[in-house]
Write a structure and sequence with these properties.
This protein has five helices and nine strands, in the order βααβββαβαβαβββ. The protein is an alpha+beta fold.
Length: 153
Amino acid sequence: MQIKKITDNKKQFLDLLLLADEQEEMIDKYLDNGDMFALYDGDLKTICVVELTDDETCELKNIATYEKYQGKGYARALIKFIFDFYKDDYKKILVGTGETPEIISFYQGCGFELSHRVENFFTDNYDHPIFEGDIQLVDMIYLKKELSTQEIF
């Protein structure tokens, strides 16, 4: 397994990024300014973008794994890498997601804890209804992880 920081031609990964954020205009808001990392195990498995929010906080804006590789630990490995990569420069990392129990549980299993909610985020910021399975996403649920803590799953 190898993780590479991507600095050029980030749009080449758009197909994978769209799995986690299905509106290209929303991806464009963070893609250029965010740090992108790609996890390879033979071929590309998982991609993520981390945006530097302020002097103390970074935010995982997008993480996506090709469907045929989901459930094999690739996203978890990339998140562990991100925690380690940013721990000396930032105090905490945030991640926002829709209110779906499986995804929230995944992030909690990676060491995140519930932080706050942004009401109507998906209905106010996307040009069409966003669904995760049969659940329409309305509010953005934010989770946080203190990077200074040593327990990394």
